[in-house]
Amino acid sequence: MKKYGLIGEKLGHSFSPQIHGLLQDYEYRLYEVERDTLSRFMNETDLQGFNVTIPYKQEVIPFCKTLSDRAAAIGSVNTVVRMKDGSFFGDNTDYFGFEYMLKKSGVSVSGKKAIVLGSGGASKTVQAVLKANNASSVTVVSRTGENNYGNLQLHKDAVVIVNTTPLGMYPNTGVSPVDLTSFPDCRLVLDLIYNPDKTALILQAKSLGIPAFSGLSMLVAQAKEASDIFTSTRSSDDVIASIEKTILSQTMNIALIGMPGCGKTTVGKLLAEMTDREFIDLDEEIEKALGRSIPDVIASEGLEYFRNTETAVLRKISCQSGKVIATGGGVVTIPENKPLLAQNSITVLLERPLKDLESKGRPLSQSKGVEALYNERKDLYQEWSELKIANISPKQTAKEIKEKLFHF
Ligand code: NAP
User: Is 57 annotated as catalytic?
Assistant: First the structure.
């Protein structure tokens, strides 16, 4: 079997092996290469071809005997193949990937002012695609450049904003390179980051009603073209959307929300088993972190202390991928928790008649009363959830969630 792979410095978050596994039948592995060993890797590898990521897209160029025209023009190589004479040919499939992402957005950049955040390898490719698609101007915003984060007001008329910085990427999620409220004319936000699925930048764009797209479609599209180059074939672009769906279904968490006692833990465990995922119970993680039971913590330290701990623990859990997460009933009472869940989770509301809700060991259900608690939270549960399921029997409910989320 032919051997391919991805080289880069840190590859822990990579989805590439999953994507290539869905594209073709060859071995595809991750190769973490340290900076001072790149030369040895290039001289000694027995791979037939490989993709290249941070920080080597420019560094591999001197090792390539020939380059495609676009790789040479852009000065960035993300796909390397071994030629018959053993030498390397370097290409840039990020170009196709970003052009695919741009087309998928349905927004034409022709005649529009664009700004590109970051000046690294991906930025060069993005600039080339925007120019080829007739953007009226393409300005690079760089921390150290003439156009920088201190004079963004010069570009408040930008219509298209593309993030090519790693700001907001897993595991340092929740931060954004710019505040979109400073760009009143913005009509399209493209973020090359694909993990998490929705960065803070994407979430802010969506909250402002600006069309926004994350980098997964680009990642799959560049992989598809690389795979075609590896195998000298030409596959249909239709596979890109279907692989994107499959990857999302594997990587998005399923977060269960709902009233205390509605069955989140029971259904969550069953769902995790049925979907072969790890199950995480937020309350259990909080108790582990504090070394005490939640009723004890609320009784001694108060509700605010508990909620702050809950948010801190959720921050760590929610940026992970492919888990089933049972949240606490009051998670929706803290606005800060909403983007934490939204970044990488499909949120499912479990509904159960109030009379059937278990209140034993649940201090707020006991002190406030289940009905008062429900009235406080019911609108939030509706607003936060993408899917609502009546929990009649846990097994049936878990099955129903699985069917609804993985119906393709
Ligand atoms: P890179 O060569 O390291 O460039 C990133 C640029 O971002 C840097 O040159 C820097 O520009 C800026 N930057 C770095 N750290 C920053 C910080 N803390 N705050 C603000 N700006 C910072 O990396 P790359 O290959 O271009 O990749 C960049 C991002 O795009 C990564 O997140 C990568 O995963 C993603 N990407 C995605 C795809 C995809 O298929 N979806 C493909 C390629 C890349 P300045 O010094 O000029 O500020």
Answer: yes
